[in-house]
Each structure stands twice: as C-alpha cells, then as structure tokens.
Amino acid sequence: MTQQPSIQAPAKLIHGNHYLLHGQLETWQGPSSEVRSPLLDAEGQRTLLGTVPDLDSEVGMAALDSAKNAYDHGRGAWPTAPAGERIEAMEKFIELILPRRQEVVDLLMWEIGKKRSDSEKEFDRTVDYLRDTIAEYKNLQREGSHINVVDGTLAQIRRGPLGVVLCLGPFNYPLNETFCVLLPAILMGNTCVFKPAKYGVLLMVPLLEAFAKSFPPGVINVVFGRGRTLASPIMASGDVDVLALIGNSKSSNALISQHPKPNRVRQVLGLEAKNPAIVFPDADLDTAVRECVKGAWSFNGQRCTALKVIYVHKDIRVKFLEAFAQATDQLVWGSPLDNADITPLPEVGKVEAMQAYIQEAQQQGAAMVNERGGRVERNMVFPSILFPVSRDTALFKEEQFGPVCPVLEFEDFQEVLDDIAKSDYGQQVSVFTQSPETAGHCIDNLVNQVCRVNLNASCQRGPDTLPFTGRKDSAVSTLSVKAALRSFSIRTLVACSEGQKGLVEDVIGGGHSSFSNMNYLL
C-alpha cells in the first residue's frame, strides 16, 4: 500500500488569460478561476496549478456570433470549403499539438488525477482517432464523388454540415472525449463554440494556439467559465443547431429545454450509464475477476463504461467475492505521477458522496466485502465492494461514478433481466460464461436492452472504429470514427432528369462547384 505523499507544486503555474474568438487569442482582463489539483500539498490543501478566465455571458454570445457568421447559413467559407482544404487544416492541427504531448499528459495527471500510463494513452489515442477520422472523411468524399442514376434521375449525394455546434466536454476524458466530438464536427463543415469542463480545463490552454493557427476565423471558438453563464444564454438564443455534450442527462435536458425550438436541435450526447456484469456459475473465475477489477476500478470507476453493478449467481457467489475482494485489495493507491492504480478524486465533495453511498447501503443490510474497502486517505477512497445491496438504495439505482461497487446475488436470470429492463440506462453489459447456450440466450435477451454485449470482457469504448452509443438516458446518437462524422452531418443531394445531363457535365467538367465534382481523394 502506497499512500499519497505530500508533493511539491509544479515548477511553473499556468495562468491562462486568453480565450479564442474569431481566430484570435483575446486577452481577458476580468475575473479568473483558480485551477487546483486533487493532489494535496503539505498543508493538505489542493495544489494550485494556475488560473483560467471566468468569462461573462457577453463573451459567450460574441463567440456564438463568431460561429454563426463563419457558418453564414451554410454559405460561409468553411462549410463550402473543398474537402482537401478541411483535411489540410486538420492535419496541421495534429502537427501542432504533437509537441505539446508531455505538457498535456502532465496536466491530465495533475488536474484530474489520471495515472501516468492512462494519461499518455489518452493523448496518443486521441491523435490516432483524429488521423483515423481524416481517413474516414476521405472515404465519405470518395463515396460522394460519383453520379447515381435512378429511374431517369441523376443524383449526386454527399454529406453536408448541420450548422453551429455547442460542444461541452467531460472532466474524465477532457482531451479524448472532447476531441472525438469537436473535431469530427469541424471536419464536416460545422462551426463550433467549445466550453471545456470545470475539471481538466487547464490542459486546453496550451492547445489554443494550435486551434487559432489551424482553422479559419470563427470555425472554432473556445470559451472558459461557468455553464450557466455561457452555455445557457447561447442555447436560449435559438442559434445552436447541434448540442454535443458528454456529461449527464440532467444537464442535457436543462440545456435543450432552454432552446426556443428544441425540435430543431440535433443532439449528440454521451451520458451516464449503469453497466452491469453478470457472472454465471460456469464462468472462468480468473477471467471474471480480472475483468471486473479492471472494469470497476480503472480511473477510480470514473468512466461511463465502468462496471457499476455486479450480479453473481448464488452457486459461485462466495468464491467470486473472495477472489474479487483479494484482487481489489492488492491495488495500489497513491499519486498518479507514480502510476498508482487508485488516485485522488478530482471533484470537490466526491469523498463524502462515496461515503454516503456506502453508509446508506450498510444501513440497509450491506456489508463491506473487502478488508480495505471504504478507507479514506486525504481525498482518496479505496475501492469498496458491498454485498448484499438493496434495490432500494441510491447505490443500486444511480450511477455512482466512483470507487464503490454493489454486488447482488441471483438464481434466476430473469431477475437480472427485469432489473436491466427497469433501469434508466442502457449502454453496455458484461456477461461471464463458458457456455455457448448461456451466451446465446444472454445475447438475444440483452441486445435490445443495451447497445453492446461484452462476452467475458469488461465494458469499454474501443476499438474506436466500433459504434459507441446507448439506449434510454445513456446516449443520443452514435460515436465512433465512422459514426461521428455522420452524426454531425446530413445527407444532401443535387438531382435532375437525364435531359439535364449536359448541364451537369458542364458544371463538373468546368469545376464550377465544390459540392458537385467528381474529384477522387487519395
């Protein structure tokens, strides 16, 4: 066991006093917000990392106007730009952020307590995602480079942008999850206003210049501050065409309700989940335990794809819990700088929230299964396994988003199916069995309840080429390398009768249109 040591603050504080508006890094002279690390100093205080602007609604509306003007009802330079021009801008952006890798990785560790290897993986995976997105965008352009002939009608079909996007990123994957929606939206010809999350915000400061140098004015506008101050007036204006939010359903519902015409807003949402694991009697115990440890406790359980409730068949419940508890108690807690498994929780009040879940569950009959469960060291909570957990507790009903996991025993699989059907969430499930019959039965009963059934593996997003979505309150729209581009666009076509063939040939042959062309991107 390694406890979190008192540490020295970073050698240099980052005072971000700029925001990106219409292609320019503007200097903010008003109030700022301190950015503090979950890593504590010698006095037990959150280490000061720097500051970011606390912008007012006037700046937020100026950013919206910039995005609106750049889009210009689809007539702006960016939405009408040739595909090659957009690709060139995206490639330049990737080139400019690569030298900032170490700086971003360090800030991921300091700001949100993500361990070193996961922070490095987040940056590298994001760069790979952007490169794959460019490749898929080229495929889209190739698909649209030919003319279809159907029943005497000539038609060229491409995907066009939707308009102005308001993008709000999450704190747990502030780089990856944000860029996986923001950059595909831009590449498809939309213009954006982007507000980083409250935590994981400082790492955007060293990337502002890359945005400014890569994209034309107004295409991407980056503002810092409070959601109520910035996002609410922007939505209330009625000028947002797409809400791209990675967070929770309460926030998305509140924002959508402020739009005067919510039916016109395309929603691309990654929301909360309550992913279950189901462990059958014939499961390979080593595999089930290993995957449940990874699924429940990676990044302290602060992932929408985390395993947040585990169902174990009564015949193996004792053996599973013994092995699960032992493997959990072997995890190391400490500093993310030392690549510890369990790290400080970035959200203020999170320790108390986890303790409240534990206390209520215990009051209703649950016992702490693992010896180290529930221990607190400063602002770290050691993973807690609770059994048996009542279905009336908050821990069973809510997404805990932290290192506490309820376990329930089952004998009849129908009990589990009923819980999943009644749940407000429907992202993924993990099934542990070695029986083809059991696996097949689970697949057929679960694929219409969740959007991904994982066999003998923990829930996860990757590979990024696979669809990533959810049912009910877990998501709206689909994200992946391929799907994200489609989520931020709409099929658009130019059509005419075969009698107009000569006109079409002249338009294409003369290079008179960026949309109607047969250029084949290599």
How much is the radius of gyration in Å?
Answer: 25 Å
Largest sheet: 7 strands, mixed
Low-confidence stretches: 1-7
CATH structural architecture of the largest domain: 3-Layer(aba) Sandwich
What's the number of structural domains? 2
Number of helical segments with 4 or more residues: 16
CATH class of the largest domain: Alpha Beta
CATH superfamily of the largest domain: Aldehyde Dehydrogenase, Chain A, domain 1
Structural class, please?
A: alpha/beta
Helix percentage: 25-40%
Mean pLDDT across the residues is 95
General shape: globular
Structural topology:
Blueprint: E1 14-15, E2 18-21, E3 24-27, E4 32-40, E5 46-53, H1 57-71, H2 83-97, H3 101-112, H4 116-143, E6 148-150, E7 153-161, E8 164-168, H5 176-187, E9 191-195, H6 208-214, E10 220-222, H7 227-236, E11 242-246, H8 249-258, E12 266-270, E13 275-279, H9 285-297, E14 307-313, H10 317-329, H11 350-363, E15 367-368, E16 376-377, E17 380-381, E18 384-387, H12 394-397, E19 404-410, H13 413-422, E20 425-426, E21 428-432, H14 436-446, E22 452-455, E23 471-472, E24 475-476, H15 481-487, E25 489-497, H16 501-509
Parallel strand pairs: 1-5, 8-9, 8-11, 9-10, 11-12, 13-14, 13-21, 14-19, 18-19, 21-22
Antiparallel strand pairs: 2-3, 4-5, 6-7, 7-25, 12-24, 15-18, 16-17, 20-23
